[in-house]
């Protein structure tokens, strides 16, 4: 009896585990963008809040940077090596007087390159006509001036000519920009006269605004000799303008008071006009900080709008979430999908805000004849803040969507 042979067939292979589901970055961007395309109006309004905040911040930084760049260029052209010497107060509280020889003494300081002066003629007033009442002087000062004043203070003429060795001895006057405007004079000429100190003076020139010596804008400037001969000027300077070498500004500033009035250096005031412009720049920075704070508030409000949009989106799309989970999407996939939507929504608003902010800066700078300057850090910082807002605003809605189970999501849809 033969033993039956038992044939051994190979055991059926066990089913292989399906590979884990993965979402590539391109897929994440696609599903995130699909969620935004289905609700265009809501997306636009939410992105608008972000755009307003970013545009406000970038335009504030851009306008402020353009203004500072323009001021720096003007200071570079005018020079920061100008020092002014003026009389201070006496110990008794009265107004001090600079010695008549103070200009010559300051000129002896080694690093000093230029020295010029003006002197106030206190009893002289300037009028457009001799028919105007004496009390309506318009607040214009009459100053005796050295011939080299424009070169020292970087003043330029808007019309006519500056005083020369001949006209400085006769009744000729150069008007500052503000003085000319108040007197209603738009051009200089031999037939243009003003009533100054009780006699007629011919207007030979009009100054353009002087940035480092704004006191000249509202003044009528006459020659030193003419002021002495015709207006009773006492010859004492009231402002001495000193140009020095850039490397020696602080050293010269320290000795100017003692040089101008050795007998009473405490009665002398020394200042640097460019410091006033720098102080104004510092004030502008403080104001810019305030506006940046307001822009940050606007950006925060925009972030709240994004968060609200994403929360509502999760509530409205429970069926979609449940269906995707049922088809194999993991919680991580749902989290990435809604986080991508929030980032894309914020990025759209940020990009629009950057474009608008640069446009506002460019237009405003053009109206002020500035060069538009938008720092790269402002643009990069604006987009970085936008993405950060997107992550923060979208994190909670994304986590909430990821925690929904498929059955719960489909049941409550």
> How many domains make up the 3D coordinates?
2
Mean pLDDT: 82
Give a quick account of the main beta sheet: strands, pairing sense, barrel closure: 11 strands, mixed
Secondary structure: number of strands: 11
SSE sequence, one letter per element? HHEHEEEHEEHEEEHEHEHHHHH
Number of contiguous helices: 12
Proportion of residues in extended strands: 5-15%
**Apparent shape:** elongated
Question: Pairing-aware structural class of the strands and helices?
Answer: alpha+beta
Give the helix level as a range of percent. Answer: 40-55%
Description:
- There is one protein chain.
- The two termini are 72 Å apart.
- The protein folds into two domains: 25-74 and 279-411, no CATH class; 81-272, no CATH class.
- It has twelve helices and eleven strands.
- α2 packs antiparallel against α11 (376-403) and α8 packs parallel to α11.
- Mean pLDDT is 82; it is low at 1-9.
- Strands 1, 2, 3, 4, 5, 6, 7, 8, 9, 10 and 11 form an eleven-stranded mixed sheet that branches.
- It has helices spanning 25-37, 40-78, 102-107, 149-153, 177-183, 224-231, 249-260, 273-316, 318-326, 331-367, 376-403, 406-411, and strands at 82-87, 112-120, 126-127, 141-145, 157-160, 172-175, 193-196, 199-207, 219-223, 239-244, 268-271.
- With 413 residues, the chain is an alpha+beta fold.
- β7 (193-196) and β8 form a beta hairpin.
Q: How would you summarize the topology of this molecule?
A:
Layout: H1 25-37, H2 40-78, E1 82-87, H3 102-107, E2 112-120, E3 126-127, E4 141-145, H4 149-153, E5 157-160, E6 172-175, H5 177-183, E7 193-196, E8 199-207, E9 219-223, H6 224-231, E10 239-244, H7 249-260, E11 268-271, H8 273-316, H9 318-326, H10 331-367, H11 376-403, H12 406-411
Parallel strand pairs: 4-9, 6-8
Antiparallel strand pairs: 1-10, 1-11, 2-4, 2-10, 3-7, 5-8, 6-9, 7-8
């Amino acid at each position: 009896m033969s033993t039956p042979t038992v044939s051994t067939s190979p055991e059926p292979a066990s089913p292989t585990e399906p590979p884990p589901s993965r979402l590539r970055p391109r897929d994440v961007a696609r599903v995130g963008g699909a969620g935004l395309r289905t609700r265009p109006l809501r997306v636009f309004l939410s992105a608008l809040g972000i755009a307003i905040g970013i545009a406000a911040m970038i335009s504030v930084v851009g306008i402020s940077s353009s203004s500072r760049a323009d001021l720096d260029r003007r200071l570079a052209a005018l020079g920061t090596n100008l020092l002014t010497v003026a009389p201070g107060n006496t110990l008794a509280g009265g107004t001090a007087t600079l010695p008549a020889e103070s200009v010559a003494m300051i000129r002896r300081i080694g690093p000093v390159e230029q020295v010029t002066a003006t002197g106030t003629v206190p009893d002289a007033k300037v009028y457009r006509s001799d028919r105007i009442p004496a009390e309506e002087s318009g607040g214009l000062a009459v100053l005796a001036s050295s011939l080299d004043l424009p070169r020292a203070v970087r003043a330029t003429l808007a019309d006519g000519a500056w005083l020369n060795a001949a006209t400085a001895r006769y009744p000729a006057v150069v008007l500052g920009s503000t003085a000319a405007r108040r007197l209603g004079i738009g051009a200089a000429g031999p037939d243009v006269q003003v009533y100054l100190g009780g006699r007629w003076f011919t207007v030979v020139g009009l100054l353009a605004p002087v940035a480092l010596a704004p006191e000249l804008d509202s003044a009528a400037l006459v020659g030193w000799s003419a002021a002495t001969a015709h207006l009773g000027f006492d010859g004492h300077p009231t402002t001495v303008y000193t140009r020095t070498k850039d490397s020696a500004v602080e050293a010269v500033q320290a000795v100017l008071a003692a040089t101008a009035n050795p007998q009473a250096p405490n009665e002398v005031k020394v200042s640097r006009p460019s410091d006033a412009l720098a102080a104004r720049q510092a004030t502008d920075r403080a104001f810019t900080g305030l506006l940046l704070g307001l822009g940050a508030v606007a950006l925060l409000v925009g972030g709240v709008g994004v968060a609200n949009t994403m929360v509502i989106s999760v509530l409205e799309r429970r069926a979609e979430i449940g269906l995707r989970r049922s088809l194999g999407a993991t919680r991580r996939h749902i989290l990435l999908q809604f986080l991508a939507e929030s980032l894309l929504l914020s990025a759209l608003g940020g990009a629009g805000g950057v474009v608008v902010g640069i446009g506002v800066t460019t237009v405003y700078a053009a109206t002020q004849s500035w060069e538009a300057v938008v720092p790269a850090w402002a643009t990069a910082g604006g987009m970085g803040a936008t993405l950060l807002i997107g992550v923060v605003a979208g994190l909670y809605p994304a986590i909430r969507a990821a925690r929904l189970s498929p059955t719960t999501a489909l049941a409550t849809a």
